[in-house]
Design a protein that fits this description.
The complex is a heterodimer of chains A (about 325) and B (about 280). Chain A folds into 2 domains: about 170 residues, 3-Layer(aba) Sandwich (Rossmann fold), CATH 3.40.50.970; about 130 residues, 3-Layer(aba) Sandwich (Rossmann fold), CATH 3.40.50. Helix content of chain A is about 40%, strand content about 20%. Chain A has 13 helices and 14 strands. In chain A, the strands form 3 sheets. Chain A has a 7-stranded mixed sheet with strand order 3-2-4-5-7-6-12, sandwiched between helices. A 5-stranded mixed sheet of chain A has the order 9-11-10-13-14, sandwiched between helices. Chain B is an alpha/beta fold and about 280 residues long. Chain B has one domain: Rossmann fold, CATH 3.40.50. Chain B has 10 helices and 7 strands. A 5-stranded parallel sheet of chain B has the order 1-2-3-7-6, with helices on both faces. In chain B, strands 4-5 form a two-stranded antiparallel ribbon. In chain B, strand 2, helix 6 and strand 3 form a beta-alpha-beta unit. In chain B, helix 3 packs across helix 9. Chain B starts with a helix and ends in a 5-residue tail after the last helix. Classes of the chains: A alpha/beta (about 325), B alpha/beta (about 280).
Chain lengths: ~325, ~280
């Protein structure tokens, strides 16, 4: 039985701690205070809370101004409104000048956007930010990982993007592996037949798929690639070399996100058969999270089939 | 006051010489917009702003954002003449090894407080700087020069709303209203006019001046500084290409390089030596 957590609360509690410890953190919202559960924060720390209204471009550019004067703003609203509507402000005024602007995108993925429909389901965010030079991109697995990731990006100089979810975000089963920015986490090691690279809120599915595969005699290693940029090139290349086959599983379009990142690295460092499980370059629709993931071929059977397909090509 | 204005006029003449020379030597740039903003930039850099060329990152300095970043030859000239770097560097504008990018870059050029160039963003960034000043306990002013066509961008009005909400009295925006944007006269390209009532409707302290009259520029900035409970805008009527008569009001000079003959002609008008 999956236990649900809340990555939005995890974020707001972390920035609250940061504000208590440090005079530099500021929360910038675009009428997104409810999205990030920030009412208490706004009440307790009014001077550390800036709400510019429904105006994401202004939120990001304003944050660039704050950061240029030594503050560390977190701009928090829906993922797509940051990465698409305010994309140019992110690229030109936060990332290009290497300013300390931290971007926190909610509803990352189709499952986090779930019942809202396409306007609030964001499956291009990682592809967009990943092409912007100099930006750290983190896709935490669950609420505990959000706490670690938010602290980590705070302590690293420069722009960063942190993906969070809907507030009903599965907690990863048997979570014991510590978070280290820029390093993959090995979450399961059944063997070295195939590596399942994943991140975000679909990890439990991948862990279960690895168990199913194991019962069928296919021994997988599950790696959480929470930091999409900078990529843990050595860690990933090593797994590719050890297993010789891979599957990527992500709640994102298969173009631009984890699947692309692993494929790009593999082509350069260690070419192996790879199958990409994710949204297959189509628009999703409203629905409950788990049903949506199944409907759009990010289900257990899809992961299992992809692993078998990858393995088959490896053994040709 | 008269002597103060005479000195500013002399600085502005030098800035204009630098602008035309730089663009001629570089073989690229926007002379029209640089020349229209020259008096506003001169007033800020040679009279108004609290700054120190020897400490360009000083925490309590006044900030400046050239939101219409394509006018940067004007800003580069002002920075060089104020001592941020050698005027010898000016002709390197837009060349590969130069620290003078085609549009302002806060990490490459000493004295630049904000990267700019894609239009419309300066007011938002300026608001962030003003709010940062409050949080860090510095009472500097932030000055933003925008173009007129530039304020067609939606983000300008997003920022205008938020700045009013935050009573950003230390944010002073100067609109370089030369009346011509890239594609032609502002009134033909867009539905922007009238400008001033829009800012008034957004709750700003509003003034309208001749942007080539230093007395008016200085007086308006003084009034803007005195208005502490809301942000200020000064709509400055200017002439695109101001100071070089054959460029004035001729939009072919929006982005055009003076030939050797035109350069000589401009220098003889401005009293500069051809270099």
């Amino acid at each position: 039985m999956t236990v649900m957590g809340n990555t939005r609360i995890a974020f707001i509690e972390t920035i609250t701690e940061l504000v208590q410890q440090d005079s530099k953190a500021v929360l910038v919202c675009a009428d997104s205070v409810l999205v990030v559960k920030g009412k208490d924060f706004a009440r307790k720390y009014p001077d550390r809370f800036i709400d510019v209204g429904i105006a994401e471009q202004n939120a990001v550019a304003c944050a660039a101004g704050l950061a240029s004067c030594g503050l560390i703003p977190f701009v928090a609203t829906y993922a797509g409104f940051i990465t698409m509507r305010a994309c140019e402000q992110v690229r030109t005024f936060a990332a290009y000048p290497n300013l300390n602007v931290k971007l926190v995108g909610a509803n990352g993925g189709i499952s986090a956007g779930e019942r809202e429909g396409v306007t609030h389901q964001f499956f291009e965010d990682l592809g967009i930010v990943r092409t912007i030079p100099g930006i750290t991109v983190v896709v935490p697995a669950d609420e505990g990982q959000v706490r670690c990731a938010a602290r980590a990006i705070y302590s690293v100089e420069g722009p960063a993007y942190l993906r969070i979810g809907s507030g009903r975000d599965p907690i990863v089963d048997s979570e014991h592996v510590p978070f280290e920015l820029g390093k993959i986490r090995i979450l399961a090691q059944h063997g070295k037949d195939v590596t399942l690279f994943t991140n975000g809120f679909v990890i439990n599915r991948v862990l279960r798929a690895a168990e199913i595969l194991s019962k069928e005699g296919i021994r997988a290693t599950v790696a959480d690639v929470h930091t999409l940029k900078p990529l843990d090139r050595d860690g990933i290349a090593s797994l590719l070399a050890q297993t010789g086959a891979a599957v990527t599983i992500e709640d994102h379009n298969v173009i631009g996100g984890l699947g692309s990142a692993i494929a790009e690295l593999s082509v350069e460092e260690c070419p192996v058969p790879i199958k990409r499980v994710g949204l297959q370059d189509v628009y999703p629709r409203s629905g409950k999270p788990e049903a949506l993931l199944d409907y759009y071929h990010i289900g257990l059977t899809d992961i299992v089939a992809a692993a078998k397909s990858s393995l088959k090509r490896k053994n040709l | 006051m008269q002597e103060r204005i005479r000195q500013l006029e002399e600085h502005a003449r030098q800035i204009r010489i630098d602008i035309v020379t730089m663009i001629h030597k570089a073989g690229d740039g926007h002379p029209g917009a640089s020349l229209s903003a020259a008096d506003l930039v001169t007033a800020l850099y040679f009279d108004v702003m609290n700054m120190d060329p020897n400490a360009p990152k000083k925490a309590d300095r006044d900030r400046f954002i050239l939101s219409k970043g394509h006018a940067c030859p004007c800003l580069y000239a002002a920075l060089a003449r104020r001592g941020y770097f050698s005027p010898d560097k000016l002709p390197s504008l837009r060349s590969l090894e130069s620290h003078l990018q085609g549009h302002p870059d806060m990490n490459k050029t000493p004295g630049i407080d904000s990267t700019s160039g894609s239009l419309g963003n300066g007011v938002s960034i300026g608001l962030g700087m003003v709010l940062a000043g409050r949080l860090t306990g510095h009472d500097y002013f932030t000055y933003v020069i925008t173009g007129d066509g530039e304020i067609e961008e939606g983000i300008v009005w997003e920022a205008a709303m938020a700045a009013c909400k935050y009573k950003a009295g230390r944010l002073i925006v100067l609109v370089d209203n030369n009346g011509i944007q890239s594609g032609g006269p502002v009134q033909e390209v867009s539905g922007l006019y009238p400008i001033l009532p829009k800012w008034e409707a957004f709750g700003w302290h509003c003034q309208e001046i001749d942007g080539h009259d230093f007395g008016q520029i200085l007086a308006a900035i003084e009034k803007a500084k005195a208005c502490t409970d809301r942000p200020s805008v000064i709509v400055a009527h200017t002439i695109k290409g101001k100071g070089v008569p054959f460029m004035e009001g001729d939009n072919s000079w929006h982005k055009r390089v003076p030939t050797a003959q035109e350069y000589q002609q401009a220098m003889s008008i401005l009293g500069g030596a051809c270099s």
